[in-house]
Input
Amino acid sequence: MRVWPSRFSDAATAEKYANNPQAIANKVYGGRADLGNTEDGDGWKFHGRGVIQLTGRSNYTVCGQALSQPFITQPELLLEPQWACMSAGWYWNRKQINLLADDENWETMTKRINGGLLGLQDRIDKIHKAMDILAM
Output
């Protein structure tokens, strides 16, 4: 209810999905044309994987083509460290996020990655912590 209030607006609805990640993914991501999730089960099959949590049939398709990997038929490849990192780099490049990071434009950067601003302050805090560590 806290993460997706528009999809789980009451306790009864949330309870039906509690402790069932597959059902949650299909409810939240299934049937979303913006993600290319057009087939039953696509929400779960193409849920967030990899360092940057690549999500959706469309992203899995294009990223797989770019990296010459069969992510559509083997989405679990994105759990392997090499492809988890490579897919994040591909997405970062494709969305031109480095320019936003250099300008410390955290809001636009977050929107390009997550589509919204949920958890923005926590993300900013973690970015600043990482920057402090890297500056040492």
